[in-house]
């Protein structure tokens, strides 16, 4: 897929205020600092579409971008800031669960996982939430340029083994590096394929 146009549409704290549309949307989420903004900018080939490294405590927003006038890319607020209050965590959880549960045009969630880390509790908990809510999702392993191919393979194998303790099937996986543009074609092809169905 060629990205001809990527337009910022809106930022919202409530799902009810998100754009009214029948176009499919694809949401990106992960632990803070996982490389979500970099991945969105890499996919859209825009250097500043998504703002990198928003600070903890900043308003957490659901950002909608319209791509090629045919689908929405949604930047969801990240989780896992070490120093945020219980109240902010609960606010995040309420907002994201409302989004996942109510957004009827949501085609797929891209859950970003830092390829350098062993399975993180917060990521596994979020996968559990997606599963319980019946939301279609795929996993995107990020920052693979920062280590050897072998190390990435090892960490992904560990992640898969961990998932298979509770899941019968594994979701689709993407291996990415925003600095090397790795995984871009695969993710865009996947979006184009699911968009045609
Ligand atoms: P976000 O908080 O999830 O939006 O993460 P950012 O996109 O802001 O990335 C966090 C940090 O990781 C920044 O310093 C990025 O430059 C860096 N980063 C993100 N993706 C990659 C990647 O694929 N490779 C490398 N080497 N660094 C990355």
From TrEMBL:
<feature type="domain" description="EngB-type G">
    <location>
        <begin position="22"/>
        <end position="197"/>
    </location>
</feature>
<keyword id="KW-0342">GTP-binding</keyword>
<keyword id="KW-0460">Magnesium</keyword>
<dbReference type="InterPro" id="IPR006073">
    <property type="entry name" value="GTP-bd"/>
</dbReference>
<dbReference type="InterPro" id="IPR019987">
    <property type="entry name" value="GTP-bd_ribosome_bio_YsxC"/>
</dbReference>
<comment type="function">
    <text>Necessary for normal cell division and for the maintenance of normal septation.</text>
</comment>
<dbReference type="GO" id="GO:0046872">
    <property type="term" value="F:metal ion binding"/>
</dbReference>
<dbReference type="InterPro" id="IPR027417">
    <property type="entry name" value="P-loop_NTPase"/>
</dbReference>
<keyword id="KW-0132">Cell division</keyword>
<keyword id="KW-0547">Nucleotide-binding</keyword>
<protein>
    <recommendedName>
        <fullName>Probable GTP-binding protein EngB</fullName>
    </recommendedName>
</protein>
<dbReference type="GO" id="GO:0000917">
    <property type="term" value="P:division septum assembly"/>
</dbReference>
<dbReference type="InterPro" id="IPR005225">
    <property type="entry name" value="Small_GTP-bd"/>
</dbReference>
<keyword id="KW-0479">Metal-binding</keyword>
<dbReference type="InterPro" id="IPR030393">
    <property type="entry name" value="G_ENGB_dom"/>
</dbReference>
<keyword id="KW-0131">Cell cycle</keyword>
<comment type="similarity">
    <text>Belongs to the TRAFAC class TrmE-Era-EngA-EngB-Septin-like GTPase superfamily. EngB GTPase family.</text>
</comment>
<keyword id="KW-0717">Septation</keyword>
<dbReference type="GO" id="GO:0005525">
    <property type="term" value="F:GTP binding"/>
</dbReference>
<dbReference type="Pfam" id="PF01926">
    <property type="entry name" value="MMR_HSR1"/>
</dbReference>
